[in-house]
Amino acid sequence: MHFAYPILKGKLPTDNNLYELFSKISLKQKDLILPLFIADDHAKQISSSNYFKKIPYSYVTQYIDNMIQKGITSIIIFGTPRKKSGSLQNNTEYIPNDMVTNSIKRISSEFKKKVTIFTDICICQDNPFGHCGITTDKTNHAENDMTLKILGRLSLEYAKAGSDYISPSSMMDGQVRYLRSILNDNGYRNTKILSFSAKHNSSLYAPFRNNMFINITSDYSIDKSNYQVSFFNPHETIREIQTDINEGADMVMIKPSMFYLDLVYRIKRKIEVPMVVQNVSGEYYLFKAGIKNSIIFNEKFSILLFLESIKNAGADKIISYFSPDFVQYLK
C-alpha cells in the first residue's frame, strides 16, 4: 500500500524564513497609522504600561521625522490629561488642548504633505470621571448635545491648526453630522472625518486608561456601555457604521481588532468608504507581555501575522501600537 505525502511540508517559523514571509504579506508601512500621545516634557510614564510611551512635546518633530524616514505616512494625535479639570458641566469653560494644537501646527508646517494627520476628538482625557461625554456624576450617562458643542469646538480648532482628518471617538449620537456641518460652515470642507463608528465596550482599553488617565481618576474600570457598542449585538455595529457614512464620514472604524475580525470582514463587503481598524492597547500589551515572559517565542512572526490578519479581514488602514515594531522589522 502506498501513501501520498504532502507536496509541501509545514515549517516552524524562524528568523531564516522571515524574508519569505515579508515577500508574501500585503501589509505595507503606508497601511499603518501611528498613534501619537503628546505630553508635557515632564509627563510621568506609567510603569504598568511602559510598552507605549508618551512623546514629550519638545521631541515631537524629531520623533515624527524618524518615523517618516522609516516609511510611516500617517499619524493620529491623542492629547493627554493636562490636570484635574473639575466639572465639565459648563462646556463654555472647556478649551482645546494647546499642546495638541501646537503639535499639529508644527508637524503640518515642517512635514507638509509627507504625513497625513488624524486628530482624536474626545474629552475623556480631561473629564474627571474618564467618560467620553459630559457627565453630571460618576454614572455612565453622557449629556449628548452638550458634548457635541465641545466636540465641535475641538474639531474646528484642530482643523484650523492643519489636521487633515478629525477623528471623533466619543460615540455621541449624531456626532458626524454635527461636526461635518461645523467644518463646512467655517470653510473647512476639505477637512475629512474618520469616525470611531464602532467603538466596542471592552476591557482591552485598560492599559491606555491606566497610562493616560493617571491625572484625572483612579477608577480605570469605567463603564461606557451606555454609549459604546456591545460585542453581542453585531447588527448595532453595522447600523452605527452605516449611520456615520450617511452623516458624511469619509472613513469608518472598528475597534478593538482581535476578536472583531469577523465583523470587519462582513462590514467591509457592505460599504464603499475606507475601513480603519484599531489594534488597541490591551491587544498590544498581551503580545508584549507574552514575549517578555517567554510565552510567545517568535516576536516578529507573531506580530506580522497578527497585523496581516487584520489587513486580510478587510482593513484599509490599521491604527497600531505595533507601527514602530513593524517598520523596524523592515530594516
Task: Please name the defining characteristics of this protein.
single chain; eight-stranded parallel barrel; 331 residues; globular; alpha/beta
Describe the structure.
Strands 1-3-4-5-6-7-8-9 form an eight-stranded parallel barrel, surrounded by seven helices. It is 37% helix and 15% strand. It is globular and about 70 Å long. The chain has a single domain (29-329), classed as Aldolase class I (TIM Barrel, Alpha-Beta Barrel). With 331 residues, it is α/β, with parallel strands linked by helices.
CATH class membership: Alpha Beta
- The count of helical stretches stands at 11
Q: How much helix is in the residues? A: 25-40%
Mean pLDDT: 82
Distance between the termini: 50 Å
Structural class: alpha/beta
- CATH H level: which superfamily? Aldolase class I
**General form:** globular
In total, how many domains does the architecture comprise?
1
Report the sheet-strand fraction. Answer: 5-15%
